[in-house]
Structures are given as structure tokens and as C-alpha cells.
Write a structure and sequence with these properties.
alpha+beta; globular; single chain; 15% helix; 10 strands
Amino acid sequence: MLEVDETYVGGKGRGYRGNKTIVAGATQRDGPVRMERIPDVRRATLHGFIKRTVRDEAEAIYTDELVSYLGIENDDTRHATVNRGAEEWVVGDVHTNSIEGVWSLFKRSIVGSVHKDRDGRLVAVEYQEAPRAALKGATRMPRRLSSTSPSRPIPRSRSQRSP
């Protein structure tokens, strides 16, 4: 089961999105995380991120109610949502709490410099190590996150692998 979400990083002012960078993320529960800077939250952009990031064999993709996520399901992968706008956080095993936790740690870990291109878009973020206890299974956070690094599909969990 994978969770996919987007967040806005940087800029000034809470709620105003015109001066912020959009980052899409996907995480396998208790597994790896993939993040990528995206230009917008349109359907084609988010579906492209999901196709580059999530393997076809994924059992389920959980998202929030953003309309752009509609249509990501296929014969092998189901799509379920929570309606965060209606304060619906969990429905059975459907939730986006894992990726929301990633965003919380990611935003709090940005301590150093923010690098922007000529148009004011985020290109890279340098940040310091987060406490080991904050990142399950990780020894340290990388020194630099670059938007140019290629996304790789999230591997299937051991329970999903064929014998």
C-alpha cells in the first residue's frame, strides 16, 4: 500500500501558494519515500509522477480528495481516498498519515540554504542531519536534495514479492 500526496514548500505567508514550490511524494508504509519537485498539481503532472514512481504491481494507492488523483487506479491497483477537507483522516486502513509525517519531518529539517533558479523556483535544499530517532531505519538524511535526481520506482514489500 502506497500513499501519495503533495505539499507546498518555502515562500512567505501561510496559505498563499503563489510563491511556493510544489513537491510530490510517495511512500510505501514502513518503506522508502520518493519526492520530486513538480510544476503544478494538475492531473497530468500528478499522474506522471505516480507512473514514474510507483510500480504497476502496487496493490493500492491512497491519496487525499484532490480531484487530480482521480483515474490513477487500474486493473491491478485500487485507489482510495480520505476527505481531509471534511476532517476525515482514516477510513479503515485508508489514510495518508505516513506521507503527512514525511512532510512534517521534511519541512522541519530544512535548516540551511534554499537555492532557487532565476524564476524563483526551488532547485535544491541543503539541510542538516535530523535526529536518528526521527527517521525510522535511516542513519542520516542526505546533505542535499536536488530536483534533478531521477525518481526510481518504489520496490514491492517482501510480502508482495513472488516466491
